[in-house]
Each structure stands twice: as C-alpha cells, then as structure tokens.
C-alpha cells in the first residue's frame, strides 16, 4: 500500500503543477508552451491518481463524446449549407438521392428551419 500512497502523492503534485501551468499560461495570453506543459503535467498526474485505465476511459468516454457533440452544436448552422452544396455536385448529389441517405440529408438540410434558428 506504500506504493499506492506514493503514486497518489506524486499524482497530486503533478496535477497541481499542471493546473498552475495551465492557469499561468492563460494569464500570459494563452502561451502555447506553458499550456502544453500544463496539459502534459495534468494528464500524467491524473493517471497517477486514478490509474491509466480510468484515465483512458475518462478521456475517450467523456471528453471525446463531448467534443463530438460540441462540434455538432458549433457547426449545426453549416450543415444545411453543406448538404445543399453536395446535392449540386454531380456524383455526390446522386448519392444523396438514394432512399436511405435521402431521408437523412433532407433532415439535415431542414434542421435549422424546424428549430427556428
């Protein structure tokens, strides 16, 4: 159990330094080097505290899914424009007219019209 306590203490120290470097990097107008060091220290400290398996599951499960959802919310106004453009491209337009894909493309094209955005 001594190893577990030591790794937890090392992890807390690394996480603390990571938070410090992230904060300091933001205070210096988002300095890339300090933010990169802060990210590395924070993730390594987190893996020392909760373990590698839980760290990977946290980042792949929560952060990746949240990033994809955020990307969708950020560019949802662009999807109807992109679908309208792809419909005018000769080969891709015929692919969007296929029965299964057609329903999805119509839904994406009229997504913002139904939501009132």
Automatic annotation (TrEMBL):
Entry's transmembrane regions: 6-26, 33-52, 58-79, 91-111
GO CC terms, sorted: cytosol; endoplasmic reticulum; membrane
Biological process terms in GO annotation: endoplasmic reticulum to Golgi vesicle-mediated transport; retrograde transport, endosome to Golgi
Keyword Transmembrane: yes
Keyword presence, Transmembrane: yes
InterPro entries found in the cross-reference section: Got1
Highest taxon, organism lineage: Eukaryota
Keywords: Membrane, Transmembrane, Transmembrane helix
Name assigned to this protein: Golgi transport 1Bb
Source organism (scientific name): Maylandia zebra
